[in-house]
Design brief:
alpha/beta, two-stranded antiparallel ribbon, 9 strands, 32% helix, globular
């Protein structure tokens, strides 16, 4: 790997934004029996929590306009994608919320062990790019800025206007009405970084594409045939898993 990109990703969990209303020691302990009994953290439960973080748009808007006023909403790809939930293995969920959100161990060299190996993000000594969004209620950009002080390599920071999905994933250059900040000063102070950064109109995708072209290493041609002798291809893309129905009860 020649470079790494952190897309709306926390490494330091000292401030984790609005989602903190659901994550503290008493709530995690109270919810753990449900996770253990199911064996998974239900995607439906996660979806409800995310909706409650912005209840005006994700709950009451539909309740009033659809249920009370009888309006039918046009089909919208983002809402369809949003409703496609996935269950998370229970052990993975408990490990994550306890070690990251409660104890903030990922930022501490050697505080976490995975498969017998100590984790140290300082060993990421390649060029990195951190991408965050101004209105992200799940991953606050002010905290993601701290990632630059934790990784071992040079680290670029891009801040886009918009939310967790709308600002980052759904921001095609051909239609983007948003802007982004880049080339900010080397500081961990969010306001100082934003004040000293360059504001550009349009999608951050173009700036990231230029960065990736410079840091991504040599281009490698795709294999003529998918799979290998050890890992043969199972079926044509995108795979049957995309139409599987995940139990939610």
């Amino acid at each position: 790997m020649a470079s790494a990109t952190f897309l709306t990703t926390l490494v330091d969990y000292s401030e984790h934004g609005d989602i903190g209303v659901f994550i503290d020691a008493p709530q995690i302990a109270a919810f753990e029996p449900r996770v253990r009994s199911k064996g998974v953290m239900l995607g439906q439960d996660l979806a409800k929590a995310m909706a409650m973080l912005h209840a005006k748009d994700s709950i009451w808007h539909f309740w009033v306009n659809n249920y009370l006023l009888g309006e039918k909403f046009p089909k919208f790809d983002v809402l369809y994608w949003n409703s496609d939930t996935a269950n998370i293995p229970g052990d993975l969920y408990q490990f994550y919320v306890e070690n990251m959100y409660l104890h903030n161990r990922l930022r501490e060299p050697g505080a976490l062990r995975l498969r017998g190996r100590e984790v140290d993000v300082g060993n990421i000594d390649m060029p990195c790019c951190v991408v965050s969004a101004t209105e992200d209620h799940i991953v606050p950009w002010q905290t993601t800025l701290l990632t630059r002080d934790l990784v071992g390599g040079p680290c670029e920071f891009l801040l886009t206007e918009g939310g967790h999905v709308s600002g980052t994933v759904i921001n095609h250059p051909a239609k983007s009405r948003r802007g982004y900040w880049c080339n900010g000063p080397q500081t961990s102070d969010p306001e100082a970084w934003k004040a000293g950064a360059e504001k550009r109109q349009g999608s951050w995708w173009l700036a990231w594409n230029d960065w990736a072209a410079q840091t991504g290493g040599k281009l490698v041609a795709a294999p003529a045939q998918p799979g290998s002798e050890i890992w043969p291809a199972l079926e044509a893309a995108p795979g049957s898993y995309v139409i599987e129905q995940v139990p939610q009860n």
